């Protein structure tokens, strides 16, 4: 696994170009795997009204790459200006995309390959300085992350797809001895640095670095598991309005929810459908495919709450021994297999108590990878935020409609995951690979 971080500042332009080429190549292999796994009919079909047809994601990846790297960075002539509108996510809702005169599977594959050829040419010639867009190859990093984000979206489409399994991957490692010992960790009150100004490929919403005071809080050492969630269900959690916000209860009643998405009851056991396989819900895995509302209701029932985004980030990266904020819970080094379940190496979360090498200085486990974690926070700009390079990446989504998720999932690539990375979605969404952990404010007696 690889990604580009602050060390890129010391790379020669040749080394930087080589690293970018490796990332582009690695990312395209994943897009090809996700789209080659099904036949043409399944590529153009809509598997859920929540998602685009896979063939839309593929050509959209090419279209963004053409606009930013071929036209803008490269200053080259447009290849397919006629299709800009079809692949503009703001022009057509996901539900409407199957009806558009989209490029077919072969055309889409040819299109992304042609764009990529031009991009390698641009990468070889374009100066990587002089304009903020190209400093440290930012535009290339943005496009790598964009493709990886759509690869995670395509993985979610695969999860929604009905039919026999087409994706295969080994299971993640088992929990480590003692790793399953769960509890809460205390993060003492005080300021820490949130966000980043040093990460060359950080996106606009992660910037700038700024000091934030956070009061004392306790946060779960591990994500909430399926076994935990069984208890919530068995206790009648889905039938008792007292645990739910008003908005959450309305949504629950309307959607008639009684368990996480993809679960079904069989006698007295819970089964789940996972990439086309029906299997018992494993008790020790982080719960996944729950909405913000379900996460919030569970936390209320448990006598806790969801962490704010600042709490989550402080628990994930603040090292009290140095007073500094790290790139990742384990330090500055890019994610390796031993740190976290990222990059679609496994098609499920690892059980809690895995990846001791990835623990944060706070003592919390599995903050990166496995499941995205819902936070209590609305998606909002940091003080000093500047939209860059386009308002439609983050700025147009700021406001109370979206909740922030942190940490990445097993479906997230390391290039699009770090302790500062911010994801967001509607609080009702469940098809994303989202779970949560709880937090609470300690009583005075607990601080002695
Ligand atoms: C950051 C995951 C919310 O998929 O809507 C992809 C990423 N932006 N294309 C999304 C994104 C433009 C975005 N999320
Ligand atoms: Fe996109």
From TrEMBL:
Domain Sulfatase-modifying factor enzyme-like: 182-440
Role summary: Catalyzes the oxidative sulfurization of hercynine (N-alpha,N-alpha,N-alpha-trimethyl-L-histidine) into hercynyl-gamma-L-glutamyl-L-cysteine sulfoxide, a step in the biosynthesis pathway of ergothioneine.
Protein name per its UniProtKB record: Hercynine oxygenase
Pfam family, one: FGE-sulfatase
HAMAP family recorded: EgtB
SUPFAM superfamilies: C-type lectin-like, DinB/YfiT-like putative metalloenzymes
Disordered: annotated span: 319-339
Cofactor(s) required for function per UniProt: Fe(2+)
Similarity remark: Belongs to the EgtB family.
Keywords: Iron, Metal-binding, Monooxygenase, Oxidoreductase
Organism whose genome encodes this protein: Actinopolyspora saharensis
Gene designation per UniProt: egtB
Keyword Glycosyltransferase: no
Amino-acid positions noted as binding gamma-L-glutamyl-L-cysteine in the UniProt annotation, renumbered to this chain: 94-97, 425, 429
Enzyme Commission number(s): 1.14.99.50
Lineage summary: Bacteria, Bacillati, Actinomycetota, Actinomycetes, Actinopolysporales
């Amino acid at each position: 696994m690889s990604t580009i971080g602050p060390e890129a500042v010391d790379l020669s332009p040749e080394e930087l170009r080589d690293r970018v080429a490796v990332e582009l190549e690695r990312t395209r292999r994943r897009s090809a795997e996700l789209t080659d796994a099904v036949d043409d009919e399944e590529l153009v079909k809509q598997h859920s009204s929540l998602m685009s047809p896979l063939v839309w994601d593929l050509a959209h990846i090419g279209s963004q790459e053409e606009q930013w790297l071929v036209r803008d960075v490269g200053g080259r002539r447009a290849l397919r200006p006629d299709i800009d509108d079809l692949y503009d996510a703001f022009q057509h809702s996901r539900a409407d995309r199957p009806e558009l005169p989209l490029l077919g599977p072969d055309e889409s594959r040819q299109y992304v390959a042609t764009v990529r050829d031009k991009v390698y040419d641009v990468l070889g010639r374009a100066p990587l300085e002089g304009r903020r867009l190209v400093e440290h190859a930012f535009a290339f990093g943005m496009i790598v992350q964009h493709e990886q984000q759509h690869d995670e979206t395509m993985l979610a489409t695969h999860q929604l797809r009905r039919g026999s399994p087409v994706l295969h991957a080994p299971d993640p490692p088992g929990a480590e001895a003692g790793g399953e010992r769960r509890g809460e960790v205390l993060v003492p009150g005080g300021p820490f640095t949130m966000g980043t100004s040093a990460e060359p490929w950080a996106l606009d919403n992660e910037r700038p670095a700024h000091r934030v005071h956070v009061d004392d809080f306790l946060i779960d050492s591990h994500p909430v598991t399926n076994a935990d969630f069984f208890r919530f269900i068995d206790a009648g959690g889905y039938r008792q309005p007292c645990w739910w916000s008003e908005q959450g209860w309305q949504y629950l009643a309307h959607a008639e929810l009684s368990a996480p998405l993809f679960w079904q009851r069989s006698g007295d056991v819970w089964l789940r459908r996972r990439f086309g396989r029906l299997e018992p819900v494993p008790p020790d895995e982080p719960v996944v495919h729950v909405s913000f509302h379900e996460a919030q209701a569970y936390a209320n029932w448990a006598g806790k709450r969801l962490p704010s985004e600042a709490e989550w980030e402080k628990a994930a990266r603040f090292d009290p021994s140095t007073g500094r904020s790290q790139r990742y819970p384990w330090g500055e080094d890019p994610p390796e297999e031993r740190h976290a379940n990222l990059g679609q190496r496994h098609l499920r979360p690892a059980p809690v108590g895995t990846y001791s090498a990835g623990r944060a200085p706070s003592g919390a486990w599995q903050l990166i990878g496995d499941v995205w974690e819902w936070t209590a926070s609305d998606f909002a700009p940091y003080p000093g935020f500047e939209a860059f390079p386009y308002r439609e990446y983050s700025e147009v989504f700021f406001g109370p409609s979206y909740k922030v998720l942190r940490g990445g999932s097993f479906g997230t690539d390391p290039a699009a995951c770090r302790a500062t990375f911010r994801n967001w979605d509607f609080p009702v969404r469940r098809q994303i690979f989202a779970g949560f952990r709880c937090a609470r404010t300690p009583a005075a007696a607990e601080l002695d």
